[in-house]
Amino acid sequence: MTTAPTRQPAAAEVFDQLRRHLSAKLALTGSFAGRGAVEHSAEGCRVTLSDGRSALDFGSYAVTLLGHRHPAVLAAVRAQLDTMPTSTRSLANPVAAEAAARLSEYFGGALPKVHFGLNGSDAVEVALKLARLARGRERVLAVRGGFHGKSLGALALTHNPLYRVGLRGCAVDVVHLDPEDPDAVRREVRSGPVAAVVFEPVQGENGAVPLPVEVLRQWCQDAAGRVRDLRRDPVRPAALRGAVGGAGRGSAGGCGPGRQAAGRG
Q1: 104 Cβ contact partners less than 8 Å away, ≥ 6 residues apart
Q2: pTM higher than 0.85, yes or no?
Q3: Residue-wise pLDDT tens digits, 178-200
Q4: Cα separation of 200 and 17, whole Å?
Q5: What is the architecture of the domain spanning 110-260?
């Protein structure tokens, strides 16, 4: 089976469509970044632009950690497309079962149960609801500077108020802790019931800022036995690997999470 090549629109047409149908700011920043060109194709760590120039890709928003169009990834995707592109969601699926088993094995069996969601925000939502329902507690502790997604519960955990505009009155009961305060969890636990403590060992949206290991260690000690869930949210797997070791497999400062949410890479 062959298909006709996809028509590549001119850069000016792309920017016009962005302005009219998505965001004028997105068109402006994209024009600056590409100097009037748009992305056309990619291979490994390089992106080819519409004017023929090649640019080194420093991250692609933390998605393509193996590089663009990695041969092993392409082969696996093509094989699955040729076999069964989508699951019935009614019958048992061997691919999902194997993926869950491998994830559990990757974490040494410490987290034996797996939930596959749509994205990182979805994973945060499920973990948040699970923690609050488990013992009937409502309050959650998060960290200033943290970012956990753009859906309702995930936004409540996110510190930046710009992301939460328009959602006042329907947010989760969240207290944002000072990342430099080792006694923050102890004070909040003493002041009332807490369902979960949520943190990113490395705050990606805040500039790839690692939280102080000694602070995390103290938080873990103060939460032990008093908080239903200690949940890490490593939404930047590459940054997490450099900060705490093991690509999220090990504990951050000795903290073993009750739930771990991950998105992207």
Answers
A1: 111, 112, 113, 114
A2: no
A3: 999 999 999 999 999 999 899 99
A4: 36
A5: 3-Layer(aba) Sandwich (3.40)
